[in-house]
Design goal:
Strand order of the largest sheet: 1-6-5-4-2-3
CATH superfamily: Zinc/RING finger domain, C3HC4 (zinc finger)
CATH topology: Herpes Virus-1
Strand content: 15-25%
Order of helices and strands: HEHEEHEEE
Structural class: alpha+beta
Number of domains: 1
CATH architecture: 2-Layer Sandwich
Largest sheet: 6 strands, antiparallel
Shape: globular
Bound molecules: zinc ion
């Protein structure tokens, strides 16, 4: 069975390298075992709700379900969560969006 098929069996297919990196280089995320069946921890950015702040887009940690806000938000809680607890993979939980991101490998993942 091809690697690609095995990955899609895990519910993850490697899609493409984020533009700006070397084209054609087969970069892979080696942290797929950090992906668990998680549920969003809150209905909005957990940390923004605590401090009464607002966010732009929501991202969910695939390791623990922590919901944080994107880098366009003033507090960037999703990225802060990675730096704090080293959970490498998050996905967008915006309606209709199924992409994810590994902070360590800097590759985009497809959770569709
Ligand atoms: Zn990775
Ligand atoms: Zn936030
Ligand atoms: Zn986490």
């Amino acid at each position: 069975m091809s690697v690609r098929k095995q990955l899609s069996r895990l519910g993850v297919a490697l899609v493409r390298i984020k533009s700006g990196l070397t084209e054609g280089a087969a970069m892979e995320c080696t942290h797929l075992d950090h992906i668990h069946k998680v549920k969003p921890s809150a209905n909005g950015c957990e940390d923004c709700l605590k401090i009464g702040s607002t966010w732009v887009h929501l991202r969910m940690c695939m390791e623990c379900g922590h919901v944080g806000c994107c880098d366009s938000s003033p507090n960037k809680h999703a990225t802060k969560h990675f730096h704090k607890v080293k959970h490498p993979i998050m996905r967008s939980i915006e309606p209709g969006e199924s992409w994810g991101w590994c902070y360590i490998d800097e590759v985009e993942l497809d959770f569709s």
